[in-house]
Amino acid sequence: MTNTVGHLIGGERVLTGGRTQPVYNPSTGEVCGAVELASVETVEQAIANAAAAYPAWRNTPPAKRAQVMFRFKMLLEENADEICELISTEHGKVLHDARGELQRGIENVEFACGIPQLLKGEHSKNAGPDIDSWSEFQPLGVVAGITPFNFPAMVPLWMWPAAVACGNTFVLKPSERDPSSVLKIAELALEAGLPKGVLNVVNGDKEAVDTLLHSSTVQAVSFVGSTPIAEYIYSEAAKNGKRCQALGGAKNHSVLMPDTDLENAVNAMMGAAYGSCGERCMALSVAVTVGDEIADKLVASLKEQIAGLKVGSGLDNSNEMGPLITADAQKKVKGYIDAGVEQGAELVVDGRDLVVPGHENGYFVGATLFDKVTPDMSIYTDEIFGPVLAVVRVDSLEEAIKLINDHEYGNGTCIFTRDGEAARYFTDNILVGMVGVNVPLPVPVSYHSFGGWKRSLFGDLSAYGPDAVRFYTRRKTITQRWPSSGVREGVVYSFPS
Amino acid sequence: MTNTVGHLIGGERVLTGGRTQPVYNPSTGEVCGAVELASVETVEQAIANAAAAYPAWRNTPPAKRAQVMFRFKMLLEENADEICELISTEHGKVLHDARGELQRGIENVEFACGIPQLLKGEHSKNAGPDIDSWSEFQPLGVVAGITPFNFPAMVPLWMWPAAVACGNTFVLKPSERDPSSVLKIAELALEAGLPKGVLNVVNGDKEAVDTLLHSSTVQAVSFVGSTPIAEYIYSEAAKNGKRCQALGGAKNHSVLMPDTDLENAVNAMMGAAYGSCGERCMALSVAVTVGDEIADKLVASLKEQIAGLKVGSGLDNSNEMGPLITADAQKKVKGYIDAGVEQGAELVVDGRDLVVPGHENGYFVGATLFDKVTPDMSIYTDEIFGPVLAVVRVDSLEEAIKLINDHEYGNGTCIFTRDGEAARYFTDNILVGMVGVNVPLPVPVSYHSFGGWKRSLFGDLSAYGPDAVRFYTRRKTITQRWPSSGVREGVVYSFPS
Amino acid sequence: MTNTVGHLIGGERVLTGGRTQPVYNPSTGEVCGAVELASVETVEQAIANAAAAYPAWRNTPPAKRAQVMFRFKMLLEENADEICELISTEHGKVLHDARGELQRGIENVEFACGIPQLLKGEHSKNAGPDIDSWSEFQPLGVVAGITPFNFPAMVPLWMWPAAVACGNTFVLKPSERDPSSVLKIAELALEAGLPKGVLNVVNGDKEAVDTLLHSSTVQAVSFVGSTPIAEYIYSEAAKNGKRCQALGGAKNHSVLMPDTDLENAVNAMMGAAYGSCGERCMALSVAVTVGDEIADKLVASLKEQIAGLKVGSGLDNSNEMGPLITADAQKKVKGYIDAGVEQGAELVVDGRDLVVPGHENGYFVGATLFDKVTPDMSIYTDEIFGPVLAVVRVDSLEEAIKLINDHEYGNGTCIFTRDGEAARYFTDNILVGMVGVNVPLPVPVSYHSFGGWKRSLFGDLSAYGPDAVRFYTRRKTITQRWPSSGVREGVVYSFPS
Amino acid sequence: MTNTVGHLIGGERVLTGGRTQPVYNPSTGEVCGAVELASVETVEQAIANAAAAYPAWRNTPPAKRAQVMFRFKMLLEENADEICELISTEHGKVLHDARGELQRGIENVEFACGIPQLLKGEHSKNAGPDIDSWSEFQPLGVVAGITPFNFPAMVPLWMWPAAVACGNTFVLKPSERDPSSVLKIAELALEAGLPKGVLNVVNGDKEAVDTLLHSSTVQAVSFVGSTPIAEYIYSEAAKNGKRCQALGGAKNHSVLMPDTDLENAVNAMMGAAYGSCGERCMALSVAVTVGDEIADKLVASLKEQIAGLKVGSGLDNSNEMGPLITADAQKKVKGYIDAGVEQGAELVVDGRDLVVPGHENGYFVGATLFDKVTPDMSIYTDEIFGPVLAVVRVDSLEEAIKLINDHEYGNGTCIFTRDGEAARYFTDNILVGMVGVNVPLPVPVSYHSFGGWKRSLFGDLSAYGPDAVRFYTRRKTITQRWPSSGVREGVVYSFPS
């Protein structure tokens, strides 16, 4: 018998007896639980609870709200092992990778601890004669977050801690594929002192999403997922008058200049291409080599490293790479590899036939390396979301930049070089939101903000960091002048008391 | 024979021989010119010119871009009389009111002069060991602005000076009803040194608007107008993946507390209700009186003041109020007054029959005052955009706040009181973006930002001021680590030169 | 046999067998311990330890330094009872007051947790063509703090958490009168992970202070104490080329307008005048009444409240006021009361003869109230640092402002009124650094900064909050241009690897 | 008969008939005027005028104060030729160099135009329950500036535009050696609308300086000059309780790495070492070469360039270098060259015997180059303030950094390299306030701040840019709570009006 994961509404775990679907352990291919899919009514109940909790929470001083975040950080650290096991079991990523994810999430909680400082508005004395003017950044009300399977702990922590620290209440719809860690984390927030109803979690599918999008109570929507869904969310939210930030897909290129420190680059790229089985929106899936010399060395070196890569169950911390999330994903990734071969790329390492002993039904695909990939191939154009790295050979940095700028996505990119000018030229001219210089996964730290360009992000404000404070608040500008009332002039003795 | 106003594309005045429509002088009701309505091709030509001018302008250092703004400010001041006459002739507002509008616009140019300071990104040393991270706020590319008839000079100056100071190039579609001042101003920008193609102006109607909305080159759209159009713009822009800020309608309430300084309040309200014939999105159209005592005094005092109000041609600077923009507007406003009477409001002053001698065909409606208006009447629910002030009587501040918060709009509001606590309670709890305390028109100064709440603004960033810099730029975050290259270690003598 | 408190140097408790002096429990007048007074050599040893710890700590990423602060906050909360008992035993303040002090100190630690955000420098792309420029705020090196007896836990926490979060190492010389809590707190910092030598504590007297002032290693000095010593510290530090912030004495006035909410004001003033026996640099020691009506009511009401004030041992939490710090302080305060009577003030409540049963040797003085005090009296001109409140009667707000602006100190002040205009006029025109409106002790919250004007603060930056980050860092501005190196142009294939 | 330059006090040119001294044209060695040296009384009169102008100016809204700066910028541009001729005549620098100086000064005026934005304080809603807190940055009152001869136009413009934009009034004591341009500039400020008395200029010597330092009216002092005087100013100002920023001397090193782009570096260094005859606190006077290969090339290349350097009268714009400021300066610089030879440095190019035909009495010294200079020589330890460049040869970047960090000054420095890691390592570890990467004179742009480290700056805030706004303002923090007054509750009808 499996355990059914439900919702967290008004501070209580809720199961309504509605539709469910199974949850799998991707390392074994076995069902490890079930998740209930929220109906319109259930989502509306969550929204109603958030709305009810809003007035009191909004009026709680920011410094008090921060106290919840301080305690929450400590509880996350104390419960890290349990959370990571939940992540690994349902997602498949190796425990140490789950720990890295959680750590990044905790850093977002740390940022939220600074909310009294972050919420400061701007004050102008004498904007006019005896007139003062200032801005306040007030919470929006009820806001919603919709998050993907690949970072079940981290991406929700990008959103709701900042949102509730700003004084909002929240309805989170996480991925239904790996729902357990997010609920555990939400319970820790309650334990840390978050009042009931401030954070609500509903599991569900399109029905739940659409209920959030069409609710007139929900003021804003944050989304992370694929680009087609991001576009849907963004345009539906706009149609309903909401503010929205919708983060979509990626195809992240690294550029290797002739002066690349190759050892450093190869180590960096192994993790960035194959970590979490490539299921990261910041995964490096393309290596653009400038000149054949570096290309040849790179391919040789990667091939050698891949041979030693340890693939297996996420729950075995000695592994370096785990399975994909579902059997469908496994099939889709293998299909891309097939297509790459058909379309003429040189398959240097083939991960299609990998079998992990004892985990024969796990959704594994081995690390795969293509050389001589061209921009017309589907393994280049599409976000594969699997452990497939494509080497594209070019002759100059200009050519590399053109390639990247022509791609529909603009999430992350990276250049390997020792040369100041090449790095500066690249970072300046590249149409990508997050750029690394000798840093393969340029995910901004929690006190900066996360956001791609082009079809990788819809909206004007990025996720987490300073932008989150702006996204989750509404500017109010007050202009004030006081008429003289006689208190400080006139006949003060006769003032009525 | 009338003069036909065309477009400004690539630094040149352009007339294509396409569709035109007449431009009227509302003070006389006579045609004073014509305006050409841009076709899809004309708008696309403007976009193409903006795109062509972008790379060089984007790479011009911000401090150089600011020099254009410094000179532009001076030219606007030197040419103020001519600009104001153009505004007044085509819009109808009195010259001194046009001057006020222009002055506010110039202040936005002054703000843009500070762009080197405003564009600063955040730099973190040691975001990790030997890793630095910083943000850059880079321009978007080609952006568009769509602006209303009521502030033909000011609202465009809310948008494009900030946008181009940030390094963007711009296509402006102003109102086709009063197109001349905006073109004059654009020419002054060229004279100030703005390179050709950086700012383009196309006159037009829905065809022009839709071309901008559907262009894949246009990265962002700023709009000011009515709420239904704002909603259309916002959802269409989102559907096309653009960022958008769309400012819509308003119904601005002032609250008069029992301790109101009445003389101050009445003076303030006369200008705020009837200035520019009520055709302002920040016009005060509702006075909410707390207690009958202040209501009675207010109505009596306003009635007296209205009796002395000088209404007439905008070109006669001794007037205090001019005509409405069109015959249609005149008809619509009179219709609202009819409805107010029918629905039971007490018509204290009736402006329907006003005739201005010598300007019998001008689109005048006199200052109108209703008392005992209730929330169900159309003169309360709708934005009239005419010189009609409605007094609503309530018994408490709580009731006043509820009334305002229940209205669909949330642009501006104001409280008149001498009491610190009442003001603080009001500004805190009111769901309105711009709040005045004893300030009737709480338009934020140029170094703050302009934005309503609820259905008065769609988007997450407000107009002009600091928000404009964020709206017209895209965050790029760079994370940098340098591998040791031997330059400062190893055998330095043998380094290749 | 008493316990001798020594120093904390390089992470170890140190006793050198040097000079000592007794530590008293002011509630009983009995010796409760001894404190060693550091010699030149001992202070130099502390400085040397700080210098040795500096390079590694400076290079620790700010986010890692913040982790120490997060843990430190939790440890302070867990050990609050013990710390407060140490404070109360040696200082005499009532336990709940010690708890308040500690809480304020913890809030400074919370602020330091946000150091990654607070240390951000400003980055300008294209300061010139292809030239970038940015600022970094780098630590100073070894910095020193010298703190007073009246807040043994809080004032050190104003200083060193911000300083070490910025990357500095620290030598603290706290008050030798109540040395135990500060050492306990320093040990908790070590437990939280602060590396040895980053924070050093030396107890001592002028010899220790002068050693710090003359050390060429010490880069900056923060001081809180009396004005004559502040002046000495400030000029000596300057003579030795150091940066310095030296906070001195105060005489804080409250102004009661005719429309004062009296009950609120009296409650507020009881705590602000008599809390901690008046030994606070933010204590309210003067009440300026505008008009005799409010004066008469105030004096009557205070007299009644004072009658019920519970004075006794600091270790009994049911008390509201404890003893003064020393027998000397007791004698000095009584001397001021004598002088007030001689100089003609009206002594409404006389605290000179108070005896606390069972604590006959404690350094108690009862709450004392003078009416009709004039600006020439020593109870008005001097900072008494005891439970003495002086009422000065004036006829207008202008007169009240002149009185306050003419006083040599300008630390804190407060106005009681309901009137927006009176409050704004007062806060604008008063030459005082921290101003309350209906808030009797306007100590800024930890994310703002603390600083008086006139002879209450010497230096340009205030204590704690944002200013502390500037005070404890040095701006470095980097301007960078990269010459083209051929990597991205030229013959890329032949580049040497 | 020569013209005597006096003072500008209360908006009027003032000559008191007091002590005078001659002003020379350094290009000819002839007297070109005289300057009156202010007595104590004259300086006190200037201070009194500044004090009288303060209240009205302080209450002028920042946006109005900015208008003066906008017009002042334009007037400076329109009068640039005249100003530069005055600079060149009295200082000797070549006209184009004077133009560069003036341009930099104008950029400080541009920065001051943004004062409404720059003065914004921080506002916290709900710092506690219903308690708001915010900071205001208020002007100090009368502040003083004392400026050096080498940038007679620019350095005063670093100070007073920011100071007066902040609302202060100012007394400037410029260098008595080249007094004319500063007075011309001050008159343009009046023409731009600066009220009389807001800016006062007194010429003088130590008597004037000490009067400023001892005045109880003067709140702050900004100084730029030599280090011994800076120390005197800093400690005297502190002794008198003032805030002070005192910028002193420099010995700016450039480091040439083996991968230096030599052509770029040599061009850069010619201007940086010999421009303005080396009389700049940012002049590059030491070249540290890493490895003999780059050293040999550098010396050969500089020697060749020096041979073509055109030296002559400042008023002839075809020249590249002019004379020193005085005969004494000429003698002193030649003495240093003598000492360099005696102490064993290799004199590659000797400028001692330079004669400029037609200007035989001008204070010329030719560009001088020493190789193989060691740290013990006086040409290395001292700031020569003349056209003398010393090459010091080292073997590694570490050695170069140690050399620089051991020098008493820390104003500016620069590294020439193409290597990202070397640049980052250098900028991180160097104890210098302004650091260039391939930028020889890393003077921060006007919207950053100027400040050295070590004995090059005394104080905690740098000159101009954001720091100037902090230096010229005092933080006031207001904490506000409103008691309920019955206006919005209770029986509103009976409220007294």
Automatic annotation (TrEMBL), chains A, B, C, D:
Domain of life: Bacteria
Keywords of the record: NAD, Oxidoreductase
GO MF annotation terms: methylmalonate-semialdehyde dehydrogenase (acylating, NAD) activity
UniProt cross-references to Gene3D superfamilies, sorted A to Z: Aldehyde Dehydrogenase, Chain A, domain 1, Aldehyde Dehydrogenase, Chain A, domain 2
Catalytic activity, EC: 1.2.1.27
Domain Aldehyde dehydrogenase: 19-478
InterPro entries (UniProt xref): Ald_DH/histidinol_DH, Ald_DH_C, Ald_DH_CS_CYS, Ald_DH_N, Aldehyde_DH_dom, MeMal-semiAld_DH
One Pfam family hit: Aldedh
Gene Ontology terms: biological process: L-valine catabolic process; thymine catabolic process
Keyword Zinc: no
Presence of keyword Repeat: no
Protein name according to UniProt: methylmalonate-semialdehyde dehydrogenase (CoA acylating)
Species of the source: Marinobacterium lutimaris
